[in-house]
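thread: overnight batch results

M.L. [08:02]
morning all. the overnight job finished for the chain we discussed friday. pasting input first so we're all looking at the same thing
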Amino acid sequence: FKAMRHWLDDRVVQEDLRKLAEYAEERGVMIFFTLPWESFRSEVLVAQRDEHSAYLDGIAEHLPVLRDEMMGAVGDNSLFLDTGYHMTEEGGRLRTRVLAEALKPFSFKEE
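M.L. [08:03]
and the structure it wrote out:
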């Protein structure tokens, strides 16, 4: 994510994020950015969450960000299947609940 943070410093990327946000707003669409959950060893968990938090700060300058205490870095390997990205059924349910909680502050009304 350190490399990704530098990616956010690119003016073309910033302009693309601004255009995406503007395009969505013009059409009454709410878009959000969130990190996928990934499995990390416990000894690097805090450092990964700090890096992810800084990355999300950069994204938040352009798009609304959904954050949770995991910051995309999960230390419980039992929530994952064959890779650090593919979640078990239990992991998927937990991730869904956490995303739902992160969305609660936003108003969703049909017009």
